[in-house]
Amino acid sequence: MPARRFADGEVVMGRWPGSILYYEVQVTGYNDVTHLYTVKYKDGTELELKESDIRSQSSFKPRKSQSSSSSPSRRNTSRSRSRSPGRPARGRRRSSSQSRERKEDKKKTVQETDLILLVTFCLFKMNENNTRRYNGEPDSTERNDTSCKILEQKFKPDLEIQRVLDQYSLHSRKEEKKKEELYSEKKIFETVTSTEKASPKTKDLEFGGRIGTFMMILFLPATVLFLLLMCKQDDPSLLNFLPPLPALESLWETKVFGIFLLWFFLQTLFYLLPIGKVVEGLPLSNGRKLQYRINGFYAFVLTAASIGALLYFQFDLTYLYDHFLQFAVSAAAFSMGLSIYLYVRSLRAPEEELAPGGNSGYLVYDFFTGHELNPRIGSFDLKYFCELRPGLIGWVVLNLAMLLAEMKIHNQSMPSLAMVLVNSFQLLYVVDALWNEEAVLTTMDITHDGFGFMLAFGDLVWVPFVYSLQAFYLVGHPTAMSWPVASAITVLNFIGYYIFRSANSQKNKFRRNPADPKLAYLKFIPTATGKGLLVTGWWGFVRHPNYLGDIIMALAWSLPCGFNHILPYFYVIYFICLLIHREARDEHHCKKKYGLAWERYCQRVPYRIFPYIY
């Protein structure tokens, strides 16, 4: 085992990845397995570097040359003693040629540095003028153009000479060889770095670590069962906290499980249809981009046509309400089986395809959070498919079944106003998600989280059976509502929807193409990663405006259920807790990723979700 050279806390010079430039960094850690140092740059960026890419500060300090310390007479004496009068002055020629090479290298370095300053200066002034124009202030174009022209005239001869040399390849063989070595070294560094960084071990465990994730594997299915049993009671109050448990054999029906499988494979068929455009996702850690077919809205339309055909042929959709509990158990069993398959296949996945948040080395934790980032069977992306198709579209179908069950049980010719509001609000949410399907490719679920029990259970069980809780509640507990109250709730829902959609659209468009002229009005803080942090629009109002819109909509979905019981508001409470957890995770991730730029952003935008509150 090689000895460690640099200690924690030591200030050294670290090479910036992919370049030959060194910057002052502080050593913060060392990995005994990979033999990589974790260093922190002045802007807060943390990277892992090899020992060969780190140097002590003393190696960069100027040294006194021997010629300055000795007298001319002594130098001449030593030179005369070193060779006989009859020998050619080979050493002098070598010394003078080395001196010329050092001078040329120094001159070239100065020219390159000045050229970088020229480009940086001009870009900075252009950005300053754009900001002044946006704020309605007069710019300094004429002064900046003059400065740029002076610098351009100063370096124009050198640039012209360089252009001619590049055009006709009039470089010396030594210079070409040096370039080849630098290029080869850079490619090797990038390859090694991408391999080492493709799947770093997960150090910060969420959800209470191994014990917490084990408890959640048991707790989540029990929570779904508890909520559905509570809604079945005549009085679902907190006084009846423990509902009577049904017989175990009544929770499972093979026919119900078969219908669930038929639904899952029907959505798989719609997903595989060659309709809709194919787009690329964000770059992975190895630089590769996966392709996704965007046809979720088409799948929704085909599903609606299929349900319409079933209703036309007198299929009783209230069967879903009568066997709601059995469908939830079937979905939970299927998600558990899918999670086991996902974890077993992830053990054979390459290191660079593992999820950064689910590679801890602990079986239970990785099983829960997801070990593999993008598990695929050919071109069929399992995580992306489950994210929007079976559960989200199934949520709408279940809501429709609740609406028909309410009419059937209470002998109504029309559904209640409260049921119509719940169905309409949640239908809008689902249609919006499918219409803007491409935006999900930039979310943390796709780019960061692996596909394990957490997402499998959430997509296939939690979304369709917990998100439809309000509609399920209204079947057994109808609520009368006046039109003015319904109008006020509708306005509240559309306020939340507007915040949610406009904030997500701003973020998605900016991530896709920050240079889009349509986004020129947006201001941002640049970061060391090359990305920007928006400080205008909704993202200059609070740090997570999309979460604010989500919470407002969740409240609007629960208000039609009235205030007799707190059970319908479980979704609001859960949603607030979920988003606060996500917000805390985002804060930690962004602070580690963006460093000082994130601290500047937090000072600029102090409120996280709720303006002037939190």
Automatic annotation (TrEMBL):
Protein name, UniProt field:
Delta(14)-sterol reductase LBR
Which stretches are transmembrane? 211-230, 250-273, 294-313, 325-344, 455-475, 481-500, 521-542, 562-581
Q: What is the lineage of its organism?
A: Eukaryota, Metazoa, Chordata, Craniata, Vertebrata
Q: How does it sit in the membrane?
A: Multi-pass membrane protein
Q: What is its main location?
A: cytoplasm
Q: EC?
A: 1.3.1.70
**What InterPro entries does the record point to?**
ERG24_DHCR-like, Lamin-B_rcpt_of_tudor, Sterol_reductase_CS, Tudor
**Start-end of Basic and acidic residues biased regions:** 99-109
Task: Kindly list the GO molecular function terms attached to this UniProt entry.
Answer: Delta14-sterol reductase activity; DNA binding
